[in-house]
Design goal:
The protein is built from eleven helices and three strands. The chain is mainly α and about 230 residues long. Helix 3 packs across helix 4 (about 65-75), helix 7 (about 110-125) crosses helix 8 (about 130-145) and helix 10 packs across helix 11.
Length: about 230
Amino acid sequence: MIDQARWAEQFLHLAFTDPSLLNQALTHRSASRINNERLEFLGDALLNLVVARRLYTLRPDDNEGDLSRARASLVNKTVLAAIGRELKVDTQLILGPGESRSGGAQRGAALADAVEALIGAVLLDAGYAVAARLVESLLAARLAALPDAAALKDAKTKLQEWLQARGRELPRYLVDSIDGRDHDQVFTVTCRIAEPERSTCGVGRSRRHAEQDAAEAMLAALIRDAE
């Protein structure tokens, strides 16, 4: 494992004036009372601001909802964890013994939190402009590949807009069952509309995913009927 300073220069293209900030950003709460949680708070705020400003410039025709969905598709734990793996953050994370033995360095949440903390550390060490450039460089490829506003709408939003455009009542979602243990649950949800009277079923690892699954099935059925 290379030392933290060399890693930062190689993967972040930055040299920290205050190496203790870099060390703190890479320290998981399981390892020390002085850890990356406060830096994560700062990094999250800056990340959202920089991405929002970039999207505002890049997508002048998008409304507020479109911009919010675009930002959410870029600023989330899945994307940040992927960036963490690309930066090999897992090789630099400082973990407590138990967390290290259980593979904590590979966990998406730990990687995502560390990426946000690193952004926060750069903000404190080098200022807004440098931290903003880092955010833009980390997300450049994903920004360039971002689909248009319509493609980013989830199934529930698309179904709602389809019904509203035809003056129909909005759907209702009802949880039919929750199976499995707390950490491994499967939700079954029914989506119901009044006009025409119809219901579809969705299944997912969370209520939200199950609702999306049911909405997607409902929208597909309505479109087929309309053809």
